[in-house]
Structures are given as structure tokens and as C-alpha cells.
Amino acid sequence: MKIVIPDEYQDAIERLPCYALLDDHDVTRYREPARDFEDLVQRLYPAEAIVAIRERVTFDRKLIERLPNLKLIALVGRNATTIDYAACTEHGVTVSRGKSNSPHSPAELTVALMMASRRNIVIEAERMRRGEWPYTLSHRLHGSTLGIFGLGNIGALVAKAGAGLGMNVLVWGQETSAKRALEAGYAVAPNKAALFEQSDVLSLHVRVKPDTAGIVRPEDLARMKPTALIVNTSRAELIAPGALLTALRAGRPGYAAVDVYEEEPVMNGDHPFLSMPNVICTPHLGWAEWDNFDLYYAEAFDQIDAFAKGLPMRLANPEVKPR
Prior knowledge:
Helix content: 25-40%
CATH topology of the largest domain: Rossmann fold
Largest sheet: 7 strands, parallel
Distance between the termini: 13 Å
CATH superfamily of the largest domain: NAD(P)-binding Rossmann-like Domain
Number of helices: 11
CATH class of the largest domain: Alpha Beta
CATH architecture of the largest domain: 3-Layer(aba) Sandwich
């Protein structure tokens, strides 16, 4: 099959053990994002199968209708919010999904960002590189309050790490989050306002859905302490558009650590957060490590092989009649 892998930013797939699964196929990879829609169509037009890396490409009806050769979209991961499944089904495009959910990598990055921000690691490392001395004072984690917005698989690992560092864990979210918090011995905030008011570090771990997009409002951020840190390694869309930038400029919260953005990739330093010394930015690294990549891509490549051989698959649109 002719396979296209768009937006392979890390340029690492060929070095994964699972890449051998595509030895019998014609593979084209693109590292840089398409310039515009027409460039994207030109890149994807020959593809019989596309490996969809997270939400990097929006497969809406307009795009699907321009890809007459497309038979399969193989998701890297279990779900994607940027695929028009109805359009795929109508045009005979099978969409397969992964099966794994590995929370460890994003949880590790979340904890790393917490520590880097609270202890001024990035600022001080750069100052020392420039030969500057003495150093600034930072905020310790021990004894402070770690707010967890959504105690799912990732949030639970972050909470456990925080508790291990001597932080007081405070949870708010759906009923399942409250139940898990009580079972783990964590405090449960009486409401969302209390979570934002009391947290010294607040970490977001909520799935983006129609009812959670923009769930963090300007008034929530305004409740945070001037010394507080908000960490977002989940999705930028959880925060109302522009709200975090406005809040940081107003001084509540005082700090942010961000791994996700409304428009990705962020190229040429073109984001206001990058000029703010109280913000640490990383380029969506939450899932980007070797073991995780090999796990997720192996599942996507295996689905391509299954499709080519007519074997059973994990279908996101089981009602499809394949081209």
C-alpha cells in the first residue's frame, strides 16, 4: 500500500523497531507541516493509508472528499477529535484505532515541569550558562498544595508523585475523581472555585470533549494565588481561548508550565508565552519518548498490515463499507 505519514516532527519513526512492519509498503514521511490546505491535499492525495499522528491533521469532510485514493486512516492512539468519522464512513474510508493507554510518559513530564518551574531550574541553568551569579529564590513543593483537576490514570500518577514529595493533594472533577481521591486518602475540593483558590500547583488532567472545552474560565484563573503555578500537559482547549495569557499578565496565577497549544506546532518562537520568564514551554513532549512511540506506532502499523491482509481490525467506524 501507499502510506503517507504527515507531520512526523521528531523524524524518528524509521529508528523504531516497529517500523519493520511497513517493509512491504511504499512509505512517504513528512517532517514539516503542510504550508496550507492545498499543499496538504497534494501530500496526501496518493495515499491509500494515512498514519494519523494525534490531532496534527484535521480530517474533515472537505479534506476527505479530496482524497479519492484513501482507504484507511490508522490512528496513533485510541481516539482523535479531529476526524470526521461520518464523512469517512460515507466515503468508504476505514478508521482504525490503537488499544493502549500509557499514562506514564505524560505523568513524568508533568512532574518534571512542576519541579522545573517551582525550583526555577530553567531560569537558573540559563543564568549559570551565561556566567551570572547569585541565584533567585524558589518555592519548594513539600508542604504545598497540589491541585489535581481530574483524577484519571495520568492525574493519579501525578498525585502519587506529589504525595511522595510531601505535597498535600487536593482533587476536583467528576464523581469518579472524588471517589478515587477518597480511596487514595486525598482531600476533595468542595467545588471548582476552592480547587483554584487553594492550589499552589494546579495540574489539568481532563479529556477534551464538547462539554469540557473551555472548562477553565478566566474567573477560575483569577482565583489563583499570585505565587501559584498552573501546569497543562493535557490539551490547550481545556482553557478558554486567551484566558491563560491574560491571567498571567494580571499576575494570577504567577506561573505556568505548558506542553500543549491551540495551534501546533509553534514555529519560529511565535507564541507570547515564549517571551514570558514566568512560563516554561515544551513542544508537546508528554508522549514523546522511545518506548511510548514504539508502542503506539506498532499498533497503528499492525492495523495497516491487518487491513492489507483482510484481517479483523479495531475499527473506530465499524459501520464503514471499505473502498
